[in-house]
Design brief:
This protein is an alpha/beta fold and about 290 residues long. The protein folds into two domains: about 220 residues, TIM Barrel (Alpha-Beta Barrel), CATH 3.20.20.60; about 55 residues. The chain is about 45% helix and about 15% strand. It has twelve helices and ten strands. An eight-stranded parallel barrel has the order 1-2-3-4-5-6-7-8, surrounded by four helices. Strands 9-10 form a two-stranded antiparallel ribbon. Helix 11 packs across helix 12. The longest helix is centred in the C-terminal third of the chain and has 21 residues. The chain starts with 12 loop residues before the first strand and ends with a helix.
Length: about 290
């Protein structure tokens, strides 16, 4: 039986925010996203790395981001900035900074998480899954005791694979599937990669629906304009909530009558369907709690 995820909070929309942009950090406090990845890696130029680190540590210590999960993506330990990033947030967490997790880039094996875990004890870790080696080692990475979430880095993975963009993401399916299986086997949060064409609402909607149907908990986003579509796609629909309530009620009634199954809308309802229904209602309640 997989262990429960660290928090019952929603991760429908996970927005990247550059850690170097004060105005963006301020604006993010009012955006309708479930989680924020405060990025010190790809979104920050080399000459701004140290300043961004200091700015972000200060902002997270002072600012209120409400119920949004706060995840800091540090630079890799193989760079000139990674160790200082990790140590800065180890100190910041000790001083009460609002950090829910540290996101480690380009995780290819559990050893990459071990190295960060040794520097920042007690802080949950997330893993960027964006290398071919990471796909092949996904199960071992997901089993790491400090890991709480996985983020698909589809842009870097496509570059490493040399694959081309397709709307159906066929070249990505092997990697996406391996990571999904690993995350679900170990009870980890897993969010889908970004959709680069942020003005293409229909393309984003279709990719969100594909990710949702595959089993992802949400999607990483690069622009606030993408939030509404992701939030809608990864939330239970009104029809799903209604069906879940009716399935639970019918099953409870059947059990009270000494029966092991119920029938709703012409379909059999068993224990596994009720478990799914309860999970849908719990997700809807978590979304309502985050957004109230």
């Amino acid at each position: 039986m997989p262990a429960p995820t660290a928090r019952p909070r929603p991760y429908r929309s996970v927005l990247y925010i550059p850690g170097s942009r004060d105005r963006a950090l301020e604006k993010a406090r009012g955006l309708d996203c479930d989680a924020i990845i405060f990025d010190l890696e790809d979104a920050v130029a080399a000459e701004e790395k140290a300043n961004a680190r200091a700015l972000l540590a200060r902002v997270l210590a002072e600012a209120d981001y409400g119920g949004r999960a706060r995840i800091v993506r540090v630079n890799g330990l193989d760079t000139a900035w990674g160790r200082d990033d990790v140590l800065a947030f180890a100190a910041a967490v000790g001083a009460g900074a609002g950090v829910d997790a540290v996101l480690v880039p380009k995780v290819s094996s559990p050893a990459d998480l071990d190295a960060v875990a040794a520097l920042i004890p007690g802080v949950p870790l997330w893993a960027m899954m964006e290398t071919a080696a990471g796909m092949l080692n996904a199960a071992a990475i997901a089993a790491h005791p400090r890991l709480r979430g996985m983020v698909m880095g589809t842009n870097d993975l496509a570059r490493e694979l040399g694959s081309r963009f397709r709307a159906d993401r066929l070249p990505m399916q092997a990697g996406l599937g391996l990571c999904l299986l690993a995350a679900k086997a170990h009870g980890r949060i897993i969010v889908d990669g970004v959709y680069n064409a942020f003005r293409d609402e229909e393309g984003l909607r279709l990719e969100c629906e594909q990710g949702r149907d595959m089993g992802f908990d949400g999607k990483t986003l690069i622009h606030p304009a993408q939030l509404a579509i992701a939030n809608a796609a990864f939330a239970p629909s009104v029809a799903e909530i209604d069906l879940s309530r009716r399935q639970i009620a019918a099953f409870d009634e059947a059990q009270a009558a000494g029966q092991g199954v119920a029938v709703v809308d012409g379909r059999i309802v068993e224990n596994l369907h009720v478990a799914t229904a309860r999970a849908i209602l719990a997700r809807a309640e978590a979304i309502a709690e985050r957004t109230k």
